[in-house]
């Protein structure tokens, strides 16, 4: 669950918490990478059924979304349902969470299938090719899309229309920062460091935090951030230590 208290600059996470608490089942999270969008989509307000995840690429097929035939023996094939249908059926038929990552990269056949899988509960349905059973999403089914784009026009309008709430995530969540050493939280929150204010993701700070225990801060900064940004990180830590 998301925490209920937020700093003033964490309004994006407050918005997400309030939207999920209000029962909105389709949300788009977009903005810079490395701020915890996917983690939030996979874990917050999910319930007892683990979320299903799709990572979109230009080569994603409809079979990777709804399912495909798989060999199970000599001259035998069985239909294996994909993550979207598993999420529809999750929690004993009540429905689970589907997370669609980097949705702006989906195209062609996959986009058409995503439109069907994220349609309104009254319209969404899919026919199992093995049993001819009509499947509909359970009443608790939810879907969250993520995108690293800053311009929502990069996401097809027909798909974006399925998601009435779009939230720009531009700050790491407090719980993600809390897992870092205390002296790294301010630089990680700032996110932009070095020449041209290069964006640095939380993943880099996690790696730096671990590496400096073994290799020392200077070498860890060079390996993770590169020379220019690494110097900026070390400078920020030095200034913070004097405060």
Explain what this protein looks like in three dimensions.
- By secondary structure, this protein is α/β, with parallel strands linked by helices.
- The protein folds into 2 domains: 161 residues, P-loop containing nucleotide triphosphate hydrolases (Rossmann fold, 3-Layer(aba) Sandwich); 64 residues, no CATH class.
- It has 11 helices and 11 strands.
- The strands form 4 sheets. It has a 5-stranded parallel β-sheet.
- The chain is elongated.
- The relative contact order is 0.16.
Instruction: State the total count of DSSP E strands.
Output: 11
| CATH class category name of the largest domain | Alpha Beta
Q: Give the H and E element order.
A: HEHEHEEHEHEEEHEHHEEHHH
Q: What is the CATH topology descriptor of the largest domain?
A: Rossmann fold
- Cross-sheet strand order for the largest sheet: 2-5-8-1-9
Which second-level CATH architecture of the largest domain applies?
A: 3-Layer(aba) Sandwich
What is the helical fraction, as a range of percent? 25-40%
Structural class by sheet pairing and helices: alpha/beta
Mean pLDDT: 88
Q: How is the biggest beta sheet arranged?
A: 5 strands, parallel
What is the number of helices? 11
Classified in CATH, the superfamily of the largest domain is P-loop containing nucleotide triphosphate hydrolases
User: Over the alpha carbons, how many angstroms does the gyration radius reach?
Assistant: 21 Å
How are the SSEs placed, and which strands pair?
Elements: H1 11-21, E1 26-30, H2 37-43, E2 52-55, H3 63-66, E3 67-73, E4 76-81, H4 83-89, E5 97-101, H5 108-117, E6 126-127, E7 134-135, E8 142-147, H6 157-160, E9 165-168, H7 174-178, H8 185-190, E10 192-193, E11 198-199, H9 202-215, H10 217-225, H11 227-242
Parallel strand pairs: 1-8, 1-9, 2-5, 5-8
Antiparallel strand pairs: 3-4, 6-7, 10-11
């Amino acid at each position: 669950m998301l925490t209920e208290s937020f700093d003033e600059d964490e309004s994006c996470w407050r918005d997400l918490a309030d939207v999920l608490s209000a029962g909105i089942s389709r949300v788009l999270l977009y903005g810079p990478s490395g701020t915890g969008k996917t983690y939030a989509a996979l874990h917050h307000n999910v319930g007892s059924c683990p979320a299903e995840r799709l990572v979109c690429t230009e080569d994603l097929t409809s079979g990777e979304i709804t399912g495909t035939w798989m060999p199970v023996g000599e001259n035998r094939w069985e239909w294996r349902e994909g993550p979207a249908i598993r999420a529809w059926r999750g929690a004993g038929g009540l429905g689970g969470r589907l997370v669609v990552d980097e949705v702006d990269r989906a195209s062609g056949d996959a986009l058409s299938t995503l439109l069907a899988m994220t349609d309104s509960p009254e319209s969404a349905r899919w026919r199992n090719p093995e049993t001819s059973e009509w499947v509909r999403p359970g009443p608790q089914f939810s879907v969250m899309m993520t995108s690293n784009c800053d311009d929502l026009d990069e996401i097809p309008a027909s798909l974006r229309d399925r998601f009435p709430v779009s939230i720009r995530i531009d700050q790491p969540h407090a719980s993600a920062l809390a897992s870092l050493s205390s002296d790294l939280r301010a630089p990680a929150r700032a996110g932009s460091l070095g020449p041209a204010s290069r964006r640095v993701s939380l993943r880099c700070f996690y790696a730096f935090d671990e590496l400096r225990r073994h290799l020392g801060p200077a070498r860890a900064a060079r390996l993770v951030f590169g020379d220019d940004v690494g110097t900026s990180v070390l400078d920020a830590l030095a200034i913070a230590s004097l405060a």
